[in-house]
Design a protein that fits this description.
Length: 285
């Protein structure tokens, strides 16, 4: 995963000088039958450089389009563009009251075979100011959504993606929380296999691991931080209980003691984890 957060980049229209790279150079390297470690690295570096250059140019053009419609309260458009014979970019532009009823934002999404990029900009009196930028590997990206995640009444940005490496369940959510000023966003916050319960200010989920080894977890929002408060796992037989029994551990500060107050079994509290939704369905305990 690649995550980039940019803050304070202001744009007010006008032409920009784009970095120009030659995509045909990729074909020259790829046709070289005497591939070496050096040419392989050159191909990778040049490819990433060209892709980023094309994305920069595409983003600048999308800014220009948004500026032409700056006076509109709401504006939506999408289009496909061919930046070269090898790289096509799908672009969508959305301007309006996307997160709050009082302050407008501009969202530009770009998608190609390499990356899915999202940039968010607050709307000022005479232009846009970038407040968030996210770049995700295209093969990992699932979707993005706008909704209240932590229960503070403000809509946030959720990026859902699936890890490209590893054998176990790994659905991730990268969260950007809208701040109290209703313009800026928090830094990226990543969760694995989560289910968000904003009405409870909680996050429940499943850690990475094989069946029987992975744990259930519960986190509670405190500002922009989700504090771990509870984990549930199977007893391994080496501690106080027989192997296979359910062990619930209170992770809150001040609750200590192995096999004592900290460790307990509570069927009623475990039932809440049945609400966890995963790609393949709910968790069954």
């Amino acid at each position: 995963m690649i995550v980039i957060v940019g803050i304070g980049c202001r744009y007010t229209g006008g032409q920009k000088e784009h970095r120009k790279k030659n995509p045909d150079r990729l074909q020259e390297i790829s046709k070289d039958k005497t591939t070496t470690a050096e040419t392989s690295v050159q191909y990778q570096e040049l490819t990433e450089e060209i892709v980023n250059s094309l994305l920069d140019s595409s983003l600048s053009d999308a800014y220009d389009i948004a500026m032409h419609h700056f006076q509109q309260l709401q504006f939506d458009t999408s289009y496909a563009e061919g930046r070269s014979c090898n790289f096509n970019i799908d672009v969508s532009i959305n301007k309006g009251y996307l997160f709050t009823e009082d302050k407008a934002h501009l969202i530009i999404r770009q998608h190609n075979s390499w990356f899915h990029c999202i940039s968010i900009h607050k709307t000022d009196s005479d232009g846009f100011t970038k407040v968030l930028s996210h770049q995700q590997d295209a093969m990992e990206f699932l979707r993005d959504s706008i909704r209240d995640i932590n229960g503070d009444g403000l809509k946030d940005l959720e990026i859902s993606w699936y890890g490209s490496a590893g054998c176990c369940l790994k659905t991730f959510s990268t969260i950007y929380l809208l701040q109290a000023d209703e313009s800026a966003f928090s830094k990226a916050i990543k969760f694995i296999n989560p289910t968000f319960s904003p009405e409870e200010h909680l996050v429940r989920g499943v850690t990475y691991g094989h069946p029987g080894g992975a744990k259930l977890y519960k986190r509670q929002w405190q500002g922009d931080t989700a504090i771990i408060v509870e984990t549930v796992s199977f007893e391994d037989g080496q501690n106080s209980g027989p192997a296979g029994t359910i062990l619930l551990i209170d992770e809150r500060p001040g609750v200590t003691g192995k096999g004592g107050q900290k460790n307990k079994r509570s069927t009623g509290r475990i039932q809440a984890y049945r609400r966890i939704r995963l790609v393949h369905g709910p968790v069954l305990i």
